[in-house]
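Researcher: Please translate sequence to C-alpha coordinates.
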Amino acid sequence: MSKKTKTDTELQGLTHLIMDATVGITDIVEAAHKQVVHPPFLPSTIIQKLITNIASISYQNIKWSTLFIGKSLHKILEQLSPVIGKIRDSHKKEAILSVLNGVIGDYLEEKENPLKITMQFRHKSKSIKLDSENIRAVYPKINGKILLMVHGSCMNDIQWTRQNHNHGKIVAEELNKTLIYLNYNSGIHISSNGQNLNNSLEELVQNWPVPIEELVIVAHSMGGLVTRSALYYGEQHEKNWTKHLKKVVFLGTPHHGSYIERTGNYLDLILESIPYAKPFARLGKIRSAGVTDLRYGNLIDEDWKNNDRFEMKNDQRKIIKLSKQIEFYSIAAVIGNKTAPLSTQVLGDTLVHVKSALGQHKNPKKNLDFKKENIWISYDSNHLDLLNNLKILDKLKVWLV
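Model: Translation complete:
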Protein backbone atom coordinates (compact mmCIF):
# COMPACT_ATOMS: atom_id res chain seq x y z
CA MET A 1 0.00 0.00 0.00
CA SER A 2 1.44 3.38 -0.99
CA LYS A 3 2.10 5.98 1.67
CA LYS A 4 -0.41 8.84 1.75
CA THR A 5 0.89 12.29 0.91
CA LYS A 6 -0.08 15.47 2.75
CA THR A 7 -2.27 16.39 -0.23
CA ASP A 8 -4.10 13.04 -0.07
CA THR A 9 -4.77 13.58 3.63
CA GLU A 10 -6.05 17.13 3.08
CA LEU A 11 -8.34 15.98 0.27
CA GLN A 12 -9.74 13.28 2.49
CA GLY A 13 -10.31 15.86 5.20
CA LEU A 14 -12.09 18.14 2.75
CA THR A 15 -14.28 15.23 1.63
CA HIS A 16 -15.39 14.57 5.21
CA LEU A 17 -16.06 18.27 5.68
CA ILE A 18 -18.26 18.36 2.54
CA MET A 19 -20.12 15.28 3.77
CA ASP A 20 -20.80 16.83 7.17
CA ALA A 21 -21.84 20.15 5.61
CA THR A 22 -24.29 18.43 3.21
CA VAL A 23 -25.87 16.45 6.01
CA GLY A 24 -26.10 19.58 8.18
CA ILE A 25 -27.74 21.66 5.45
CA THR A 26 -30.18 18.82 4.76
CA ASP A 27 -31.17 18.91 8.42
CA ILE A 28 -31.82 22.65 8.18
CA VAL A 29 -33.95 22.30 5.04
CA GLU A 30 -35.93 19.45 6.61
CA ALA A 31 -36.60 21.55 9.72
CA ALA A 32 -37.72 24.48 7.56
CA HIS A 33 -40.04 22.16 5.61
CA LYS A 34 -41.67 21.00 8.82
CA GLN A 35 -42.24 24.61 9.88
CA VAL A 36 -44.01 25.35 6.61
CA VAL A 37 -46.18 22.20 6.63
CA HIS A 38 -47.02 22.60 10.31
CA PRO A 39 -47.75 26.32 10.90
CA PRO A 40 -46.80 27.48 14.40
CA PHE A 41 -49.52 27.54 17.07
CA LEU A 42 -51.95 25.46 14.93
CA PRO A 43 -52.87 21.74 15.29
CA SER A 44 -51.60 19.36 12.58
CA THR A 45 -53.96 17.26 10.47
CA ILE A 46 -53.44 13.64 9.39
CA ILE A 47 -52.61 14.82 5.85
CA GLN A 48 -49.97 17.22 7.15
CA LYS A 49 -48.37 14.44 9.21
CA LEU A 50 -48.38 12.13 6.19
CA ILE A 51 -46.66 14.79 4.04
CA THR A 52 -44.02 15.27 6.72
CA ASN A 53 -43.38 11.53 7.05
CA ILE A 54 -42.94 11.10 3.28
CA ALA A 55 -40.63 14.11 3.13
CA SER A 56 -38.60 12.75 6.03
CA ILE A 57 -37.89 9.58 4.06
CA SER A 58 -36.56 11.70 1.18
CA TYR A 59 -34.36 13.76 3.46
CA GLN A 60 -33.06 10.62 5.13
CA ASN A 61 -32.16 9.18 1.73
CA ILE A 62 -30.22 12.34 0.89
CA LYS A 63 -28.23 12.06 4.11
CA TRP A 64 -27.50 8.36 3.69
CA SER A 65 -26.53 8.87 0.04
CA THR A 66 -24.19 11.67 1.03
CA LEU A 67 -22.46 9.50 3.60
CA PHE A 68 -22.24 6.53 1.22
CA ILE A 69 -20.83 8.57 -1.69
CA GLY A 70 -18.54 10.51 0.61
CA LYS A 71 -16.84 7.38 1.89
CA SER A 72 -15.57 6.55 -1.57
CA LEU A 73 -15.22 10.10 -2.93
CA HIS A 74 -11.73 10.59 -1.49
CA LYS A 75 -10.50 7.70 -3.68
CA ILE A 76 -11.63 9.61 -6.76
CA LEU A 77 -10.12 12.87 -5.50
CA GLU A 78 -6.78 11.13 -5.00
CA GLN A 79 -6.49 11.08 -8.80
CA LEU A 80 -6.22 14.87 -8.62
CA SER A 81 -3.27 14.75 -6.21
CA PRO A 82 -0.59 15.45 -8.87
CA VAL A 83 -2.46 18.60 -9.95
CA ILE A 84 -3.28 19.75 -6.42
CA GLY A 85 0.28 19.01 -5.38
CA LYS A 86 1.55 21.76 -7.66
CA ILE A 87 -0.22 24.38 -5.53
CA ARG A 88 0.32 22.63 -2.21
CA ASP A 89 2.51 25.42 -0.82
CA SER A 90 0.77 28.33 -2.52
CA HIS A 91 -0.16 31.40 -0.49
CA LYS A 92 -3.70 31.15 -1.83
CA LYS A 93 -4.18 27.67 -0.43
CA GLU A 94 -2.71 28.73 2.92
CA ALA A 95 -5.13 31.66 3.02
CA ILE A 96 -8.12 29.40 2.27
CA LEU A 97 -7.13 26.99 5.04
CA SER A 98 -6.67 29.89 7.46
CA VAL A 99 -10.17 31.22 6.77
CA LEU A 100 -11.64 27.72 7.03
CA ASN A 101 -9.95 27.23 10.40
CA GLY A 102 -11.02 30.66 11.58
CA VAL A 103 -14.69 29.97 10.81
CA ILE A 104 -14.97 26.30 11.88
CA GLY A 105 -11.57 25.52 13.40
CA ASP A 106 -13.08 24.16 16.61
CA TYR A 107 -15.12 21.70 14.53
CA LEU A 108 -12.02 20.62 12.59
CA GLU A 109 -10.19 20.15 15.89
CA GLU A 110 -13.03 18.14 17.43
CA LYS A 111 -13.30 15.86 14.39
CA GLU A 112 -9.49 15.63 14.07
CA ASN A 113 -9.93 16.69 10.45
CA PRO A 114 -6.61 16.82 8.54
CA LEU A 115 -7.49 20.34 7.39
CA LYS A 116 -7.03 21.72 10.90
CA ILE A 117 -4.03 23.95 11.52
CA THR A 118 -1.67 22.93 14.30
CA MET A 119 0.12 25.70 16.18
CA GLN A 120 3.73 26.07 15.10
CA PHE A 121 6.51 28.62 14.81
CA ARG A 122 7.44 29.34 11.21
CA HIS A 123 10.14 30.94 9.11
CA LYS A 124 9.69 31.64 5.39
CA SER A 125 6.37 29.77 5.51
CA LYS A 126 8.02 26.63 6.87
CA SER A 127 7.60 25.03 10.27
CA ILE A 128 10.51 25.28 12.73
CA LYS A 129 11.42 22.17 14.70
CA LEU A 130 12.12 23.24 18.25
CA ASP A 131 15.56 21.78 18.81
CA SER A 132 18.80 23.78 19.06
CA GLU A 133 20.44 22.23 16.00
CA ASN A 134 17.47 22.88 13.70
CA ILE A 135 16.89 26.42 15.00
CA ARG A 136 20.54 27.28 14.31
CA ALA A 137 20.22 25.80 10.81
CA VAL A 138 17.13 27.92 10.11
CA TYR A 139 18.83 31.07 11.41
CA PRO A 140 22.53 31.10 10.41
CA LYS A 141 22.88 34.66 11.81
CA ILE A 142 20.88 33.97 14.98
CA ASN A 143 21.07 36.31 17.96
CA GLY A 144 19.45 36.60 21.37
CA LYS A 145 16.86 39.22 20.41
CA ILE A 146 13.66 37.41 19.38
CA LEU A 147 10.84 39.20 17.52
CA LEU A 148 7.64 37.12 17.42
CA MET A 149 4.77 38.06 15.09
CA VAL A 150 1.29 36.76 16.02
CA HIS A 151 -1.44 37.01 13.34
CA GLY A 152 -5.17 37.61 13.78
CA SER A 153 -8.40 35.71 13.16
CA CYS A 154 -8.79 33.82 9.86
CA MET A 155 -5.24 34.76 8.86
CA ASN A 156 -1.77 33.20 8.84
CA ASP A 157 1.89 34.12 9.15
CA ILE A 158 2.30 34.72 5.40
CA GLN A 159 -0.29 37.49 5.51
CA TRP A 160 1.95 39.72 7.59
CA THR A 161 3.18 40.69 4.13
CA ARG A 162 0.62 43.05 2.63
CA GLN A 163 1.11 45.09 -0.51
CA ASN A 164 4.76 43.99 -0.56
CA HIS A 165 5.30 45.36 2.94
CA ASN A 166 6.13 43.41 6.12
CA HIS A 167 6.53 45.22 9.45
CA GLY A 168 8.36 42.31 11.06
CA LYS A 169 10.92 41.83 8.32
CA ILE A 170 11.90 45.51 8.26
CA VAL A 171 12.02 45.87 12.05
CA ALA A 172 14.10 42.69 12.39
CA GLU A 173 16.60 43.84 9.77
CA GLU A 174 16.97 47.40 11.05
CA LEU A 175 16.97 46.59 14.78
CA ASN A 176 18.98 43.35 14.48
CA LYS A 177 16.39 40.91 15.81
CA THR A 178 15.68 37.26 14.95
CA LEU A 179 12.25 37.12 13.32
CA ILE A 180 9.81 34.29 14.08
CA TYR A 181 6.18 33.92 13.03
CA LEU A 182 3.41 32.04 14.83
CA ASN A 183 0.77 30.14 12.86
CA TYR A 184 -2.29 28.80 14.66
CA ASN A 185 -5.90 27.66 14.32
CA SER A 186 -7.85 30.84 15.10
CA GLY A 187 -11.14 28.94 15.34
CA ILE A 188 -10.51 27.23 18.67
CA HIS A 189 -10.95 29.06 21.97
CA ILE A 190 -8.52 31.92 22.58
CA SER A 191 -7.64 30.42 25.95
CA SER A 192 -6.75 27.11 24.26
CA ASN A 193 -4.45 28.93 21.87
CA GLY A 194 -3.07 30.88 24.82
CA GLN A 195 -2.16 27.71 26.68
CA ASN A 196 -0.63 26.19 23.55
CA LEU A 197 1.44 29.33 22.93
CA ASN A 198 2.55 29.36 26.56
CA ASN A 199 3.90 25.82 26.22
CA SER A 200 5.41 26.47 22.79
CA LEU A 201 7.26 29.59 23.95
CA GLU A 202 8.67 27.70 26.90
CA GLU A 203 9.98 25.02 24.56
CA LEU A 204 11.37 27.69 22.23
CA VAL A 205 13.41 29.51 24.89
CA GLN A 206 14.68 26.23 26.34
CA ASN A 207 16.09 25.26 22.95
CA TRP A 208 17.30 28.67 21.75
CA PRO A 209 20.94 28.08 20.73
CA VAL A 210 22.34 31.36 22.13
CA PRO A 211 21.65 33.29 25.36
CA ILE A 212 18.36 35.20 25.09
CA GLU A 213 18.62 38.94 25.56
CA GLU A 214 14.97 39.78 24.99
CA LEU A 215 11.68 38.56 23.57
CA VAL A 216 9.33 41.11 22.00
CA ILE A 217 5.95 40.40 20.42
CA VAL A 218 3.94 42.24 17.76
CA ALA A 219 0.35 40.98 17.60
CA HIS A 220 -2.48 41.85 15.22
CA SER A 221 -6.17 41.68 16.19
CA MET A 222 -7.06 38.34 17.86
CA GLY A 223 -3.33 37.63 18.08
CA GLY A 224 -3.13 40.19 20.87
CA LEU A 225 -5.71 38.30 22.92
CA VAL A 226 -3.88 35.01 22.32
CA THR A 227 -0.68 36.71 23.50
CA ARG A 228 -2.32 38.08 26.65
CA SER A 229 -3.82 34.66 27.37
CA ALA A 230 -0.43 32.97 26.96
CA LEU A 231 1.16 35.52 29.28
CA TYR A 232 -1.53 34.94 31.90
CA TYR A 233 -0.96 31.18 31.90
CA GLY A 234 2.80 31.63 31.71
CA GLU A 235 2.87 33.86 34.78
CA GLN A 236 0.49 31.56 36.64
CA HIS A 237 2.91 28.66 36.12
CA GLU A 238 6.08 30.79 36.44
CA LYS A 239 7.35 29.87 32.98
CA ASN A 240 10.85 31.02 32.03
CA TRP A 241 9.78 32.63 28.76
CA THR A 242 7.79 35.30 30.62
CA LYS A 243 11.04 36.52 32.23
CA HIS A 244 12.48 37.20 28.78
CA LEU A 245 9.42 39.06 27.50
CA LYS A 246 10.21 42.78 27.47
CA LYS A 247 7.71 44.44 25.11
CA VAL A 248 4.38 43.71 23.41
CA VAL A 249 2.76 45.82 20.68
CA PHE A 250 -0.94 45.33 19.93
CA LEU A 251 -2.30 46.32 16.50
CA GLY A 252 -6.10 46.64 16.47
CA THR A 253 -6.59 44.11 19.25
CA PRO A 254 -10.20 43.95 20.58
CA HIS A 255 -9.18 43.96 24.26
CA HIS A 256 -12.82 44.46 25.27
CA GLY A 257 -14.36 42.63 22.36
CA SER A 258 -15.71 43.44 18.92
CA TYR A 259 -19.13 44.97 18.31
CA ILE A 260 -19.31 42.89 15.11
CA GLU A 261 -19.50 39.65 17.08
CA ARG A 262 -22.00 41.16 19.49
CA THR A 263 -24.12 42.13 16.47
CA GLY A 264 -23.85 38.56 15.20
CA ASN A 265 -25.19 37.36 18.49
CA TYR A 266 -28.22 39.63 18.14
CA LEU A 267 -28.81 38.08 14.72
CA ASP A 268 -29.08 34.68 16.41
CA LEU A 269 -31.77 36.00 18.72
CA ILE A 270 -33.77 37.58 15.88
CA LEU A 271 -33.72 34.38 13.81
CA GLU A 272 -34.67 32.29 16.84
CA SER A 273 -37.69 34.52 17.52
CA ILE A 274 -39.23 34.17 14.03
CA PRO A 275 -41.01 30.77 13.67
CA TYR A 276 -40.31 30.21 9.95
CA ALA A 277 -36.72 31.50 10.23
CA LYS A 278 -35.88 29.52 13.34
CA PRO A 279 -34.26 26.54 11.54
CA PHE A 280 -31.87 28.90 9.80
CA ALA A 281 -30.63 30.23 13.13
CA ARG A 282 -28.32 27.21 13.04
CA LEU A 283 -26.42 28.94 10.24
CA GLY A 284 -25.61 31.81 12.59
CA LYS A 285 -24.17 29.29 15.00
CA ILE A 286 -21.64 27.91 12.56
CA ARG A 287 -19.06 30.47 13.66
CA SER A 288 -16.25 29.08 15.73
CA ALA A 289 -15.42 29.28 19.42
CA GLY A 290 -12.57 31.62 18.53
CA VAL A 291 -14.98 34.04 16.87
CA THR A 292 -17.50 34.02 19.72
CA ASP A 293 -14.65 34.66 22.17
CA LEU A 294 -14.25 38.00 20.39
CA ARG A 295 -17.63 39.17 21.69
CA TYR A 296 -16.07 40.51 24.88
CA GLY A 297 -12.45 39.43 24.52
CA ASN A 298 -12.31 36.15 26.49
CA LEU A 299 -8.81 35.23 27.64
CA ILE A 300 -9.08 32.27 29.99
CA ASP A 301 -11.10 29.04 30.26
CA GLU A 302 -13.27 30.40 33.05
CA ASP A 303 -14.57 33.11 30.72
CA TRP A 304 -16.45 30.57 28.58
CA LYS A 305 -16.66 27.22 30.36
CA ASN A 306 -20.10 26.05 31.51
CA ASN A 307 -21.73 28.75 29.35
CA ASP A 308 -23.72 28.54 26.14
CA ARG A 309 -21.48 30.66 23.93
CA PHE A 310 -24.44 31.67 21.75
CA GLU A 311 -26.56 32.87 24.65
CA MET A 312 -26.80 36.63 25.05
CA LYS A 313 -25.12 37.56 28.34
CA ASN A 314 -23.35 40.54 29.78
CA ASP A 315 -19.58 40.71 29.95
CA GLN A 316 -18.59 38.17 32.62
CA ARG A 317 -14.84 38.00 32.00
CA LYS A 318 -12.33 37.78 34.78
CA ILE A 319 -10.34 41.00 34.94
CA ILE A 320 -6.81 40.33 33.66
CA LYS A 321 -4.57 43.36 34.10
CA LEU A 322 -1.37 43.99 32.17
CA SER A 323 1.86 42.95 33.87
CA LYS A 324 3.84 45.83 35.36
CA GLN A 325 7.16 44.17 34.45
CA ILE A 326 6.51 44.40 30.69
CA GLU A 327 6.19 47.42 28.43
CA PHE A 328 2.90 47.33 26.49
CA TYR A 329 1.93 49.43 23.47
CA SER A 330 -1.35 49.65 21.58
CA ILE A 331 -2.40 51.08 18.23
CA ALA A 332 -6.01 51.64 17.17
CA ALA A 333 -7.19 52.43 13.65
CA VAL A 334 -9.95 54.78 12.50
CA ILE A 335 -11.38 54.71 8.98
CA GLY A 336 -11.91 58.49 9.00
CA ASN A 337 -9.52 61.38 9.55
CA LYS A 338 -9.05 63.50 12.66
CA THR A 339 -11.81 65.88 11.58
CA ALA A 340 -14.33 63.09 10.82
CA PRO A 341 -17.58 62.98 12.83
CA LEU A 342 -17.33 61.51 16.31
CA SER A 343 -19.50 58.57 15.24
CA THR A 344 -16.93 57.59 12.60
CA GLN A 345 -14.07 57.83 15.07
CA VAL A 346 -15.89 55.72 17.65
CA LEU A 347 -16.60 53.11 14.94
CA GLY A 348 -12.86 52.54 14.64
CA ASP A 349 -11.42 50.35 11.92
CA THR A 350 -14.76 48.71 10.90
CA LEU A 351 -14.09 45.65 13.10
CA VAL A 352 -12.71 47.01 16.39
CA HIS A 353 -13.73 50.29 17.93
CA VAL A 354 -11.11 52.66 19.29
CA LYS A 355 -11.73 52.26 23.01
CA SER A 356 -11.58 48.47 22.79
CA ALA A 357 -8.28 48.64 20.87
CA LEU A 358 -6.83 51.03 23.45
CA GLY A 359 -8.01 48.94 26.39
CA GLN A 360 -10.43 51.59 27.65
CA HIS A 361 -13.67 50.52 29.37
CA LYS A 362 -16.63 52.29 30.95
CA ASN A 363 -15.90 50.22 34.06
CA PRO A 364 -12.62 51.71 35.42
CA LYS A 365 -11.68 48.35 36.95
CA LYS A 366 -11.44 46.86 33.45
CA ASN A 367 -9.23 49.59 31.98
CA LEU A 368 -5.87 48.21 30.86
CA ASP A 369 -4.19 51.52 31.69
CA PHE A 370 -1.71 51.78 28.85
CA LYS A 371 0.75 54.60 29.36
CA LYS A 372 -0.32 57.68 27.43
CA GLU A 373 2.92 57.69 25.43
CA ASN A 374 2.40 54.00 24.55
CA ILE A 375 -0.85 54.39 22.59
CA TRP A 376 -1.44 55.81 19.14
CA ILE A 377 -4.35 56.17 16.70
CA SER A 378 -3.86 55.56 12.99
CA TYR A 379 -6.36 57.64 11.02
CA ASP A 380 -7.61 56.87 7.50
CA SER A 381 -6.92 53.18 8.18
CA ASN A 382 -9.03 50.05 8.33
CA HIS A 383 -8.29 46.86 10.23
CA LEU A 384 -5.98 45.38 7.60
CA ASP A 385 -4.23 48.66 6.85
CA LEU A 386 -2.56 48.21 10.23
CA LEU A 387 -0.34 45.63 8.54
CA ASN A 388 1.24 47.96 6.01
CA ASN A 389 0.85 51.50 7.34
CA LEU A 390 4.30 53.14 7.16
CA LYS A 391 3.55 55.42 10.10
CA ILE A 392 2.96 52.34 12.22
CA LEU A 393 6.30 50.97 11.04
CA ASP A 394 7.93 54.17 12.30
CA LYS A 395 6.25 53.69 15.68
CA LEU A 396 7.44 50.07 15.87
CA LYS A 397 11.03 51.08 15.15
CA VAL A 398 10.91 53.65 17.96
CA TRP A 399 9.13 51.44 20.48
CA LEU A 400 11.08 48.24 19.86
CA VAL A 401 14.60 49.69 19.69
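Researcher: Any highlights?
Model: The CA atoms of residues 100 and 154 lie 7 Å apart.
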